[in-house]
Amino acid sequence: MQKPKEYDWKDSNMAMFGSDTDKKVKKESAETETAWKGAGQKVGVQIWRIVKFKVTHWDKEQYGEFYNGDSYIVLNTYKEKDSDELHYDVHFWIGKYSTQDEYGTAAYKTVELDTLLDDEPIQHREVQGHESAKFKSYFATFSLLKGGADTGFRRVLPEEYVTRLFHVQKVSRTKISCTEISAKKGNLKSKDVFIIDSGNKIYQWNGAECSHDEKFKAAQETSRIKGHRGKCHLSSLDENSTSPEHPALMLLKDGESKAKGESPPGERKMFKVSDSDGSLDMDEVEGDISKDNLSSDDVMIINTGNHVYCWVGKGASVDERRNGLSYASNYLNKTETPYLPITVVAEGSENAEFQKAF
Known about the structure:
By secondary structure, the chain is of the alpha/beta class. The protein folds into 3 domains: 1-129 and 131-148, Severin (3-Layer(aba) Sandwich), CATH 3.40.20; 161-250, Severin (3-Layer(aba) Sandwich); 265-358, Severin. It is 20% helix and 28% strand. It has helices at 20-23, 27-30, 100-116, 133-136, 212-229, 247-250, 318-333, 352-355, and strands at 44-51, 54-57, 65-67, 71-79, 86-94, 122-127, 141-145, 164-170, 176-181, 193-197, 201-206, 233-238, 269-274, 281-284, 299-303, 308-312, 342-346. A hairpin with a 4-residue loop joins strand 15 and strand 16 (308-312). The longest helix is centred in the middle third of the chain and has 18 residues, at 212-229. 34% of the residues are buried.
């Protein structure tokens, strides 16, 4: 089996943004996209997956599950306290092995959805493994799986199952992450909880040093998997009382995955995207990033070190508005932190996260 190609962020671009194709995006054309029927009409989360350049509805039973070979669009519709007005956050999420075509389509279609909703949504770009807290907050369980959605294991015969290993971690009091890792014995660590899924048998392996909350959350997750799959047997194993020859451990290969170092923080910088001199350019703003440097006539790119904001001034030109996100993305692709989340915010509608950036 050929290993999927990892997406090369530094060779990528956002050519579809600001191009002639992008400039032709109109609300009328967005309304012809059948996948958008009902989008943003009521409070809640809606998810679509990109399949061969097309937007397809993601099964609600799989909300919170993301495959590293795919790209997705996530729309969160909500109301502010004491208000009946609908507000939106729209995210496009890129899997580690998602193709450039899928990534580009997701980005392009996100702009189209934004157009359909009268430019009301706040746009976000999310990269696998570096998702924003806001994005993760939508799901009680945030799961990262290997492969594409078409390689899912919900409705296949038992003999077709391939053993999968999941690392369960508590994110908050009510939320967990469940990340698929290589099915190797050495990847089991005493301080955490893991799920060994062989299809018709699911084992919860509790490390000797794991917390009670992690055990409880992992048990909820195994029950959830069983609920979706139907007939399968659940077992809970404690590290200290489980033999190395236990059938669950024999499902795993020998060895251990290479440890990954911590991702470096981004460099705090601010840029101005402006066409005031007749050509559209992005120039660095000297000195510390500060609200005093925000210019209402332009688009500003602000890298806080762990998040990038594309701030759109009220007086920004059409070209500046259309190209702000592409400039932010292409700038990041040339840095050591191409995976940072990007959020587009409009002057006068800045969220709390943006306010904390300064």
